[in-house]
Amino acid sequence: MDIEPLLAQLVDAGASDLHLKAGSPPIVRRDGLLHPVEHPELRAEETERLAMALLPEAKREQLAQTGDAEVGISRPGLGRFRVSVFTEQGRVRLAIRRVLTEPPTVQQLGLPPVVEKLAREPRGLILVTGEAGTGKTTTIASMIGLINRTRRCHIVTIEDPVEVLFEEQLALIDQREIGTDVMSYAAGMKYVVRHDPDVIFIGEIRDEEAAEAALQAAETGHLVIATMHTKDAVETVNRLIDLFPLGHHRQVRVSLASALRGVICQRLLPRADGRGRVPAVEVLVATGRVRDRILDPSATEGLAHVIDEGGYYGMQSFDQSLLALVERGVVSAEDAELAASRPHDFALALRQAQLV
């Protein structure tokens, strides 16, 4: 059995993900929901054979050692895909995500205009966060695409795996893959500034080493864009600081307050018309009030109130974003309430706006 017919089913279904597991038929995720496709149940030897055919030797060794490996693949006429291979009770499983072949614009994604403004920053740290599958890759692709179209600069990405392949326009772009070009995010960041970059994209900040390197690069004149798996802006700030030992928190707060330019957090909701999903976006912009609250541990939780009141600077909370989506008829009030950060307050806001 070849992977191409299964990838074709993924594309034809207009789905985002394909799951291959022994004992089940292939399953696709469309508009956030899982659907089995018409296909015989997969056998364990089939899934393992598919995985081994897709993984290069170094990734096979990684799978054997850690139980997880990822690789990016392209197929003519079908597009580009991120393949995550992992083991479950000794059997090999695959989760395949369809990724972009051409980055969309900020406007096409329906992102707030401040995202474009942040992408035009010459230096500093921008964090794009959210749970898995909330569109972080797509948002970052739109930001890098904007930089590529408008700025003569050198962009270096460190990804696991490389997802969106960029065609160079004004920018010079080097895309490095974990496990192929470099062994880890921390290793990739260790020498990246020697490559003369202007813009650095880090696929994910996972540990102290990567966080420290990102802050140092941002403080020395580079624009650093990175992702984290956090639910909102306040948690993002706290999580980044907590990656460091307690005794270093004061200095980290000083560095973060200086380097941070913004935090973009995302959640995906089904569209009211049933045609796909739409992002709700929380945005924190690093103003003086924000920096003061990052520096003061007792005031950091107050960042949520700064976001609520920061509309002049382009800031918005999740609940403000959700309310706007409901007002425009893009998402239903019921789905928005389920996604709200403060459901009780959000329900009250819906009633006050006469939306329910």
How are the SSEs ordered, and which strands pair?
Blueprint: H1 4-12, E1 17-20, E2 27-30, E3 33-36, H2 44-54, H3 57-66, E4 68-75, E5 79-88, E6 91-99, H4 106-109, H5 113-119, E7 124-129, H6 136-150, E8 154-159, E9 172-177, H7 185-190, E10 199-202, H8 208-219, E11 223-228, H9 233-242, H10 249-259, E12 260-270, E13 277-285, H11 288-295, H12 303-308, H13 318-327, H14 333-339, H15 343-352
Parallel strand pairs: 7-11, 7-12, 8-9, 8-10, 10-11
Antiparallel strand pairs: 1-2, 1-6, 2-3, 4-5, 5-6, 12-13
Description:
- Helix content is 38%, strand content 24%.
- Strands 9-8-10-11-7-12-13 form a 7-stranded mixed beta sheet.
- It has 15 helices and 13 strands.
- With 356 residues, it is an alpha/beta fold.
- The chain has helices at residues 4-12, 44-54, 57-66, 106-109, 113-119, 136-150, 185-190, 208-219, 233-242, 249-259, 288-295, 303-308, 318-327, 333-339, 343-352; strands at residues 17-20, 27-30, 33-36, 68-75, 79-88, 91-99, 124-129, 154-159, 172-177, 199-202, 223-228, 260-270, 277-285.
What are the main properties of this structure?
356 residues, 15 helices, 38% helix, 24% strand
> Fraction of residues in helices?
25-40%
Average the pLDDT over all residues and give the rounded result.
Answer: 93
Range of strand content:
15-25%
- SS-based class: alpha/beta
Helical segment tally? Answer: 15
Strand order of the largest sheet: 9-8-10-11-7-12-13
Instruction: Give the CA-CA distance, first to last residue.
Output: 51 Å
